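Assess this today:

___
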Amino acid sequence: MPTLGSPNVISIVFFFVFIAITMGITYWAALRTKTTEHFYAAGRSISAGQNGFALAGDYMSAASFLGIAGLVSTTGFDGLIYSTGWLVGWPIVLFLIAEPLRNLGKYTFADVVALRMRETPVRIAAAIGTLVTVLFYLIAQMVGAGGLIKLMFGIPYELALTIVGVVMIGYVLFGGMLATTWVQIVKAVLLLSGAFILAVLVLLKFGGSPLALFAAAADKYGAGVLAPGKLVSNPLDTISLGLALMFGTAGLPHILMRFYTVPDARAARTSVFYATGLIGFFYLLTFILGFGAMVLVGPETITGVDKGGNMAAPLLAAYLGGTPFLGFIAAVAFATILAVVAGLTLSGAAALSHDLWASVVRKGEPAPGEELRVAKVATLGLGIFAVILGITFKGQNVAFMVSLAFAIAASANFPALVLSIFWGRCTTAGAVASMLIGTVSALALIYLSPTIQVDILRHEGAFFPLKNPALVTIPLSFASGIIVSLMTREKGSADRFASAERRMMLGVE
């Protein structure tokens, strides 16, 4: 196996080739990104197929490639809960969210919730939920980036995060959504290709049979690696994690923004169909990679390099293909992180500039070009903050960190979105209560959970027993929205809902 932790020339070459290609894309996109609509939504010029690859690229993050493979390699079968949980969220997006969102909104999911309600309180609450979700998701990506570049390039973790931040800010600042979309497409193709080649090389070691691979894992580490319970032993924890992964997809701001880049609702639905197939195929591959790393590399070696287990896939590439293949997989993983961080930063900037500045501070009437300038300042600020967060949470497993972001998205955004779209009785106070209580309760229970109290603060016990709060916070968010809506009234609410329903179905203004 190649020496790890020292500069890898092939990794650096692949890395700079990718940076050169994506900076070329950014320059091309910058020439076309002159308006707010181009910055947020790529001028609604992305086709269904292109958006399907971009959605898959946004979703196949460091948590998917590095985190799931790492969890499977160290815990076995239970790592599959992340793959299946994230995948089954897509039918909800396809059948429940994609078409209404495209027909009702403009740039952010807050546009939909605020359509028939009082804008100021709704947008403030929505922006809070969006920013908290984005920041938790950013933590995972930055932790993965730091560990990967430290391993591949032999440079300090903190410097690696700074490089990620600088390049990502360049994508978003100059190219907006058009550059981010095409960077995601390039990344998705590279990631699917790299994971497929790596999985094939693993299976060739076992006669092309996944069953032989699983049998080898059981022989080496005991039958327990093929049974549930090693990672998540509490049934309530399992249900809570599953709910977060399943419903969180439909509340992720950077995923929801993608539906505004296509020309119509039909293209939005079709793009979700494409994305689901690509993501499903990819998650099957990560399971092979995880067990391959367990058998061929070993959990001790993997956690010895990175205690969160995030380097399982690169270590497997080093074992199977030596330095050249390690360099390619490392560059692909780094490209994955850069692209997802760019999408997250863009959605956070949209919340600050569109939902808060343009709609709340300027009451929907910003000066010409002002919203775009604020979006670029917000991009810069979020990029710097992302680097700081990555340094703070060094050493955590990235798939697990993302599951907490999903819990917040499922609690803060998803219930309010569903209630505002499908329930005519939902009021402004109800939607705001749902978003704020969902956000605050998720954050509070994460802090009181074993995740923070035991794993990070090293206390003996935790005040809240579940590692993921979704089992409590999703019903609480729905209940808050419903109860507060039933206790309040809004004049003309029925007429506004009828108008919104007509627009949601027909796609007319």
Summary: The chain has a mean pLDDT of 85. The radius of gyration is 22 Å.
